[in-house]
Amino acid sequence: MAENRRVRMTKKMMKDALLELLEKEALEKITVTDICEKADVNRSTFYSYYEDIGQLLLEIEDDVLNNLPISPDSVITDSDERFLSTLEEFFDYVCDNERLFRVLIVQRDSSSFNHRLVNSVMEHYRKSSETGDQLLDRYAYVYCINGVIGIMKEWINGHFPISTRDFAQIALQMSAKATS
Question: The pTM is what?
């Protein structure tokens, strides 16, 4: 069932409140009351949408993963230029959603979100197989994605000191070296 505008706005206020709180405190120290006070909603409103804070956080993570820019082709088979453009789109998304990525992968450094991000990236940003060995390709891809997440944390912490295009080129070059 589609949510009406008021419901979407209320949920957005609670999500923003949780993100703001996560910028300052660990998830374990945040209470439903903290979120409700920050979002200016009643506890009953919170519980009408979410069972607990974890479910709210999961919905934030789902929003991030569901809004990743996706290439029209699930598998990128042509030039490195096409793949580079796809990576650039992804990193533009990271820049445009700096707060979300700062909280989710830099400050929280949640292995479960990182794992979900790796799987989502593998699903949406695969480059065609070089070796024909699916297991070897998967391991190489997981290795590369985790490496890119690592340098992406530094890029975010440095407040994006280089352009998304240059960062995409670095990610592509490092991945090419790692898999060759």
Answer: 0.84
